[in-house]
Amino acid sequence: QVQLVESGGGLVQAGGSLRLSCAASRRTYSTYTMGWFRQAPGKEREFVAAINWSGTYPPYADSVKGRFTISRDNAKNTVYLQMNSLKPEDAAVYYCALRVGRLAQTESEYDYWGQGTQVTVSS
């Protein structure tokens, strides 16, 4: 079992930045992919970004490309999501997820989930 704990959410004005963190309860191995998803009120949870062990060519949702950056510190078992130029439509609960396997963008392919952290963007 792996527990994931997100942090870093909060209230920010449109155009501002936030950095989310997700710490895994135990060592993350080279076979692990970590991802971020988000869910806005009344909407389904959607993929945001994912990263594998090497951190090369992480996929992003089109809606966040060029504004969000996912990164990973394997020594700290932590994945980050740097969110810049935030828009009101980015407001959601952001979830960290982990899967044993290659990069994936589908919710059902992830094995472990965090509790989520709220991001609110004021216009």
Task: Note the main attributes of this structure.
mainly beta, 123 residues, 4-stranded antiparallel sheet, 6-stranded mixed sheet
Topology:
Elements: E1 4-7, E2 10-13, E3 18-24, E4 32-39, E5 46-51, E6 68-73, E7 78-83, E8 92-100, E9 112-113, E10 117-122
Parallel strand pairs: 2-10
Antiparallel strand pairs: 1-3, 3-7, 4-5, 4-8, 6-7, 8-9, 8-10
Your description of this structure?
By secondary structure, the chain is an all-beta fold. It is built from no helices and ten strands. The strands form two sheets. Strands 2, 4, 5, 8, 9 and 10 form a six-stranded mixed sheet that branches. A four-stranded antiparallel sheet has the order 1-3-7-6, with no helix packed on it. A hairpin with a 6-residue loop joins strand 4 and strand 5. The termini are far apart.
First-last Cα distance: 40 Å
**Kindly state the mean pLDDT as a whole number?**
95
Biggest sheet layout: 6 strands, mixed
**Fraction in helix:** under 10%
Helical/strand content category: mainly beta
Topology order in helix (H) and strand (E) letters: EEEEEEEEEE
Using only CA atoms, what is the Rg? 13 Å
| Mass-distribution shape | globular
Beta-strand residue fraction: over 45%
Tally of individual helices = 0
- Contiguous low-pLDDT stretches (5 residues minimum) are none
Short summary:
With 123 residues, this protein is mainly β. The chain has no helices and ten strands.
